[in-house]
Amino acid sequence: MSHQQDSLRPEEFAEAAAAAVADVLGREPRQAAAVLAASGLFGVCAPEARGGLGLGLEFGVPVCEAAGKLQLHFPLVEQMLLARAFADSDIADALIAGEKIGVIAWQGSVQQKSATHAGFADACDWILVADEDGASLLQAQSVSVQANDAIDPEYPLYDIAIEAPIIQARLSAKAWAALKNDAHVLYAGFINGLGGQALEQAAEYTATRVQFGRPLSAKQVVRHTLSRMRLLHEASTATLQRALRKNEYSAARPADTAFAGAIGNAVFIIEKAIHLHGGMGFTWELPLHYSLRDVRKIEAAFNNGHQLENLGVQFIAAA
Predict the structure, then answer these.
(1) Which H helix or E strand runs over 262?
(2) How far apart are CA 67 and CA 112, in angstroms?
(3) Of 130, 145, 308, 315, which has the fewest CB atoms closer than 10 Å, so is most exposed?
(4) What does the pLDDT look like over 257-314, one tens digit per residue?
C-alpha cells in the first residue's frame, strides 16, 4: 500500500463524490461525464500513470454508494471498472477524462452475435461484451442497440445485435473474471447507497407524518419495521467491508456473497420504505420506485438467481 493510501480514508471520498453527483443530476450523459471526470471520480481506482488516483476498491465503494444514494442515472460504476481494467492502454485515459463513455453488456457474447442487459448503450462510445476466452471492447457505432423497457421504461437496459463489430481492445479471461469480481464490489456499494437512501427517507417520513395525534414512528409495528431495515442495511455494509479485506491467508475474498446479500437486503428495505409511505409510496412523484427499478435491473443483469443457487451449492459442499 502506498503512502498516499496510508494517509487517506475511504469515507473521506463520500462527501466529495456526493457533491459531484448532485451537480450532474438531470444532465444528459455527455455533460455528466465531463463534470464527473473533472471531479476525478472515474479514475479513483485507476493507476496514477493514466491520470487516476491509483487507489483500491475500498476507495471506490463510497463513491458508488454516494451515486446510489442520490440515484445517479449514469454508468459511473462501469466507467470506473473499464478505466481500471484497461489501465495499460490509452482507453483508460479517455475514460478517466470523460472523453469517452463505456458500458458493459453482462449477458450474451460476440460469438452469439447478441448481448443484453447493457445500460445507457444508446449514449456510449464503447461496449464491453464477453467473447470466447475473455471480453472484447466494441465500438458502439459498429453494433445495433434496441431498448428493452420491461423493467424500466425511463432508463431501459439495451439488447445489442452484433454483426460486424469493430473491436477496440480485448480483455483476457483472467482480466474479465477480475473485472466481474470488481463489479460485484462496486455495484454492492451502489446498491447499498440505494437502500440507505430509502431507509433515511422512510425514517424521516414516519417521524413527521402524524396520524391520530401521533407520528407514525410511535407505532410499534413501524418501529420494528424500521429496525429491521436498519439491521439489514448494516449487515450489507459489514459484509461488503469484509469482502474488501483479505482472508487469513492474505488472499482476496470473492465478493459474490456481499453482492447477493446487498441485492436481497436492498429490495426488502426499498419495498418496505414504499409500504411505509402508504398510498403515496406507489405514486410516480415519490422517487423510491427509481431505486427499486435500479436494483432489479442489476439483479437481472447479473442473473442473481443463478448466482444464489451456486452459492447454495458451495455452502452445502463446504458443510
Answers:
(1) helix 256-276
(2) 33
(3) 315
(4) 999 999 999 999 999 999 999 988 878 888 899 999 999 999 999 997 666 677 676 6
What is the per-residue pLDDT for 315?
A: 66
pLDDT along the chain (319 residues), means of 10: 62 89 95 96 93 93 97 97 96 97 97 97 97 96 96 96 97 96 97 97 93 89 96 97 86 89 97 93 87 96 75 68
Neighbours of 309 (CB within 10 A): 11
Q: Of 202, 266, 188, 256, nearest to 232 (Cα)?
A: 266
Cα–Cα distance measured from residue 123 to residue 149, given in angstroms and rounded to the nearest whole number: 16
Nearest to 162 by CA among 82, 123, 108: 108
For residue 119, what are the contacts with CB-CB under 8 A and spacing of at least 6? 75, 78, 103, 155, 157, 158, 297, 301
Which domains can be identified in the chain, with CATH numbers? 1-99 (1.10.540), 101-165 (2.40.110.10), 175-318 (1.20.140.10)
Q: What is the pLDDT of residues 210-238, one digit of tens each?
A: 888 899 888 999 999 999 999 999 999 99
Contact 222, 178 (CB under 8 A): no
